[in-house]
Design goal:
InterPro entries: AB_hydrolase_fold (IPR029058), Fungal_lipase-type (IPR002921). Residues 274-375 form the Fungal lipase-type domain. This is Fungal lipase-type domain-containing protein. The protein is 50% helix and 15% strand. With 448 residues, it is an alpha/beta fold. It folds into three domains: 16-113; 143-206, no CATH class; 213-447, Rossmann fold (3-Layer(aba) Sandwich). The protein has a nine-stranded mixed beta sheet with strand order 1-8-7-6-5-4-3-9-2, with helices on both faces. The chain is elongated, with a radius of gyration of 29 Å. The relative contact order is 0.14.
């Protein structure tokens, strides 16, 4: 499969990486220029060298010529010092441009977030405009157009065909929840909350679920062979995904691969399934809140020796939990002693999760999978996070999100890609142990 069949965002070939390179190159040019100026300054010592001054008595003409040419070489308009200052100025300008680009990008992002929030907060007003006589201002909501597209007659099909609209709806949800908070009775307002972003809205919903872990047991330990690429890693993940509330930790030559499957129960608050891998964990993980799934994995990794490499592999909910664990461990917020190397996610909403620069994350995303849209964020452009986006439309939400039928299959094609951005992203993940002999432990979680 050729690189033209993928839409790659971020990573070593992304805009942020280009800005980092511009800043680094600018810094090198700036410092080199200053070094040249220092050399020019130090070279003035030759003008008053004792031996040189003594030679002036014997050949005053030659001495004068040397002094003049030396001064011109060091201090003239095209001299060494001038070139050094020019280089330094160019380097400073380049670094300034890199910072200006980064500032502008952040400003645009903040503006988009404010627009999304306002869109959700004014939703009833927008509906009122559309339902009122013609001639009033147009809004983002066109009910007639949405009806023609099948939103009301077949919402499931509409979601599958318009995943970008779901992303926009999620992005505007904090504003709508905030509106509900202002309209709710005084006794209900604390329950609704006043969120400013998707993480805060998710945290409000997560608080309605039980997030405690009652127990964790090692259900099975067996000898195996570690994967050597992302196809093998997702194949292993698919094997453990066939069981409820289980995950696996694989050890190979001091490398720890952690396999985290996705959601098993789409339950509602106050009517919970009792499973750890439920909707409550989804909300908590998106919000960055503590939850039973993360508690269990941290407990399983308690004996990882200092400096050992840890890789996280997760699908759907498991990918969110993987990114949150990598974030917490790498930032020293847990007792785990290992070093997080990489995170591989498949069909997970992780665009808003910031990992330290030395942790690489690669996300496989089916453009028609609605689950990666549930954080309300567009594909990011972080230098250490590469999103490899492909298109596979199977006509159903579950079919488009399938680990075995979509992501494992596509991973095999991605491994064979010759796209430089894809190749570099996969190289950053490492080899997950390179196919060596490994020991795999399956853990069983129990909800508190």
């Amino acid at each position: 499969m050729t690189g033209s069949e993928y839409d790659v965002h971020g990573g070593a070939h992304g805009v942020e990486a280009d800005m980092d390179d511009m800043d680094a190159v600018g810094g090198t040019i700036r410092s080199t220029g200053f070094e040249i100026v220092e050399v020019a300054g130090a070279s003035h010592a030759f003008l008053v060298d004792g031996n040189l001054l003594e030679s002036a008595v014997l050949s005053p003409g030659t001495f004068a010529t040397f002094e003049a040419e030396m001064i011109a070489a060091l201090d003239g308009p095209h001299a060494l010092a001038a070139h050094g200052l020019s280089m330094s100025a160019a380097g400073i300008f380049m670094q300034g441009m890199a910072k200006a680009y980064a500032f502008t990008d952040r400003a645009v992002q903040i503006s988009d977030d404010i627009g999304d929030w306002a869109q959700g907060y004014t939703l009833p007003l927008q509906l009122g405009w559309k339902l009122s006589p013609a001639g009033l201002p147009a809004t983002v909501l066109d009910l007639a157009e949405l009806a023609d597209e099948g939103l009301f007659s077949d919402p499931a099909k509409w979601l599958v065909e318009h995943p970008d609209q779901l992303e926009e709806l999620v992005a505007s949800s904090p504003g709508f929840v905030a509106l509900l908070s202002t309209l709710a009775p005084s006794w209900a307002s604390p329950l609704v909350g006043f969120p400013l972003d998707v993480e805060q809205a998710s945290s409000t919903l997560a608080g309605l679920y039980n997030q405690e872990l009652e127990g964790l047991t090692a259900a099975e330990t067996y000898a195996s062979q570690s994967p050597s690429d992302i196809e093998g890693a997702l194949t292993r993940l698919d094997e453990v995904a066939n069981h409820d509330d289980q995950f696996q930790v694989e050890v190979v030559d001091g490398v720890y691969n952690v396999y985290l499957p996705g959601t098993k129960a789409f339950d509602a608050p106050f009517d919970e399934s009792g499973l750890v891998q439920n909707m409550g964990t989804n909300f908590a993980a998106v919000a960055g809140d503590d939850n039973a799934y993360q508690q269990a994995v941290l407990e399983a990794l308690a004996d990882v020796p200092p400096g050992a490499e840890i890789n996280f592999i997760g699908h759907s909910q498991g990918g969110i939990v993987a990114a949150r664990l990598a974030e917490a461990i790498a930032n020293g917020e847990t007792d785990v002693q290992g070093n997080v190397n990489a995170v591989l996610t498949a069909g997970s909403p992780v665009d808003d999760i910031e990992l330290p620069e030395d942790v690489q994350m690669v996300s496989l995303v089916n453009e028609y999978d609605i689950v990666p849209r549930l954080d309300g964020e567009a594909y990011g452009d972080k230098s250490n996070h590469t999103s490899i986006v492909f298109e596979e439309q199977n006509g159903e939400t579950t079919a488009n999100h399938s680990l075995a039928e979509v992501y494992v299959t596509q991973a095999g094609e991605i491994v064979a890609s010759d796209d430089a951005a894809v190749v570099d992203a996969l190289a950053g993940l490492g080899s997950f142990g390179g196919g060596g002999d490994s020991t795999v432990t399956t853990y069983q979680m129990v909800r508190g």
